[in-house]
Specification:
Elements: H1 9-21, H2 23-39, H3 45-68, E1 79-84, E2 88-91, E3 94-101, E4 107-113, H4 117-125, E5 131-140, H5 153-158, E6 162-168, E7 176-178, H6 183-201, H7 204-215, H8 223-231, H9 242-258, H10 263-280, H11 285-300, H12 309-323, H13 331-352, H14 357-379, E8 383-384, H15 387-409, H16 419-441, E9 446-447, H17 454-473, H18 477-500, E10 505-509, E11 518-521, E12 528-531, H19 553-564, E13 569-574, H20 580-583, H21 586-592, E14 594-601, H22 608-620, E15 623-627, E16 632-635, E17 638-644, E18 659-664, E19 667-671, H23 677-686, E20 694-696, H24 708-714, E21 718-721, H25 734-742, E22 746-749, H26 750-753, E23 756-761, E24 764-769, H27 775-783
Parallel strand pairs: 4-6, 12-13, 13-14, 14-15, 19-20, 20-21, 21-22
Antiparallel strand pairs: 1-3, 1-5, 2-3, 3-4, 5-6, 5-7, 8-9, 10-11, 10-23, 11-12, 16-17, 17-18, 18-19, 23-24
Length: 784
Amino acid sequence: MKGKLILLAPPALLGTMLPLHGPHTIIALFFPYLVLLSKYKKFSFKQILFVCALFLVFALTGKHSVENNKTSFFGNERNFSLVFNEGAAIDGDRFKAIAKDLRTGEKIAVTYKVASEHEKENLQKANFFGRLCGVNGSMKQPASAKNPGGFDYNLYLKEHQIHWILTLDTAPLGNCSVRNASMVEKLRMIRQEGISHITAQYPSESASLVSALIFGEQTLISEDVMAAYKKIGITHLLAISGMQVTVLAGLVFLLGVRLGVTRERMSILLLAVLPAYAVIAGASPSVIRSVLMAGILLLTAFRSSFISPAGALSLSFMAFILIDPYSLYDPGFQLSYLVTFSLLFSSGALRNKNYVGLEMLAVTALISQLAALPILLLHFFELPLISIAANIIFIPIYSFILMPAVYLLYPFSFVKGLAGFAGGVLNGAVMLSDRLALFLAKIPLQMNPGKQTVAILVFYTASVFYSFIAWERAKTQKVAYLALMLPFLLLMIQEAGELVSNRAGEVTVIDVGQGDSIFISLPNGNGNYLIDTGGSVDFAKKEWQRLRKPYDPGRDTVIPFLKAKGIVKLNKLILTHGDEDHIGGAAAIMENIKIDEILLPAYKEKSEGEEEIINLADRIGINIKEVARGDVWKAGNSTFYVLSPIRDYTGDRNGGSIVIYSEFSGNGWLFTGDLPEDAEKELVRLYPAMKVDVLKAGHHGSKTSSSAYFLKHYKPAVALISAGENNRFGHPHKETVERLDEARAKIYRTDLHGAITYSFKGKSGTFSTFLPYTGALNEKKKAK
């Protein structure tokens, strides 16, 4: 099998996927692969049998993982004995941990709302590694995604063999005992102590980078900086890479040899140390891959059958998925192996084509970006075109300045009197680097094709393979560069084609929890509008209670939704009124999505939130327009009428909501914001003949809106209610649901159904929900 190890990775992959995805597609791929091995790679009959056996071994391993990835709990349990073998994290007034139930051995996500600052200090002082605690609490299942492009927390935890979230009644401080910590727990403890040391000795900017590069801890990096690094495609520089592991292992090896230790003993020492280093460095996929590869190469270094790096990559891949089949779903795992595979197999061509200096750096960055393309489209729905230029700038900065400085200055942080010097020297360089990243992130060089079908993803994956082959065989540099650019050119053609295609329109009520956000996309690209952005009503919190990254529906829900739809520009952002649950997510959207115009109600006095939006729009350069009754605009075949408020409105904000009427596929739609009953009566008086087929129920289904008089007059066929699941206000109120039932309106609710979408073209349209529609029976039960 010498020289053929890389060919064993596909059957191992297919075998693992067999129980995860079903037999039809996997078998359809496996047997043609056997034919290819036999015909083109000259595999013998025995070797083919070995490949089949390998396939079966990985299929059985995957089957075992699937069968054991089940819960032993029913959800009504209250008392638990938990082992905190992964430590705990405290963010603001939230305590979070992954613990193992002592009786069943099942992992549970643990959460607790800290009661006081004193209690938080006690939790921070407590060492949870290996701690055994008797606790009480209530269990719930993790939330699934409720919007297109949304993060599926339930699926994420399931892939980590976790099925329940346990909310504790009291802090896990009293009924606890300390067990003898395992070696892994001790290593995790060392890691946590190292991170704590860094945060104590370094300024915040440099502490975040040092923690990331030494311990693989990225949570200390500020939200703005991390967002910028993601936008320009250089987050890999903040992770501990395979190159770092290789360089560190090589330096330790050479140092040992220079000190007189034999090569054999140094190899054995490194084999013992590398797994420990993987745990201390955070055990990310890239670190584990590098440690596995280094271990394999060390094991075979003194054998006659030396394994190539490609062979080591293949063996590490098989070992990884054999231990944890669900790692296949991890984007970090996918990117680490695909990019490493591409760089290894292009290394020969890179040498033959005589690239040097910046050209070598640019081509290497292009190859990495090309390899990552299918994964970026699959998980993130976008591609940073500025990534190649950003990598050319930042790789030398990190490789020759920041990374060496981090490692060289870190020992000084333990020397009294020199810790401040180490942090001060590094801090200036880190701040300059972060500012440069923030500047580059403002340059609009991204492709946003949106969520792709499986067929299109397969097509782009095939185009990447073809691109590499064409590049390797190219006779001239121009042809070589053109070959590498092929998939990007195809993406541009696809985006251009979608702009001129006869696309359907849609109206989607996005599930932003207890708030409103409605996306309207007109057919044939005639306009994209967003009515409200959602927002978290965050009651005043003390400093110790504030989360580092509190939930922002604009950033965490609406933007991923827009990216999944391939939306790069909003023609209008319509903010119906100044309540936080309608405009709280606006700032994040304004900073990340191009907006032509923002519509605000023509109030005499603006809310504090509206004033902040106006100021931000002025800085960004977004036009602000105040609208009132009588304003109209037309786009394509659609006309939008503003029915409320009156100009210079001075009353209650809910009563001054922007109310919009339009027609889609011949049906009349009325968007009412938080309009109360008295304002509804005014609409009936002013527009008695208005045809309302679809009503966006006012104020999240509150009993103060959607009055019987209003519903009896307009008789909507469909009512859309945007409300948060189990919200503190009890929306939608029982009375509202009953009134809508009496009016015979079909009710769609975001708290029950997730995002609600109406797709239309011409005179026809269809409603669909992101979660399965459960019907009126469950709606009545929920409203009781």
